[in-house]
Amino acid sequence: MTTKTIRESEELEKLPIGGLLKRSFDVLAAILALILLSPLFILLSCLVKLSDGGPVLYGHRRIGRGGNAFYCLKFRTMVTDGDAVLEAHLAANPDAHAEWLAARKLQVDPRVTTVGIVLRKLSLDELPQLVNILRGEMSLVGPRPVVKDEIELYGSAATYYFKSRPGLTGVWQISGRNDVNYDERIAFDKHYVENWSFQKDIIIILKTIPAVCTSRGSY
Question: Which of 50, 86, 94, 164 is deepest in the core (most CB within 10 A)?
Answer without folding.
Answer: 164
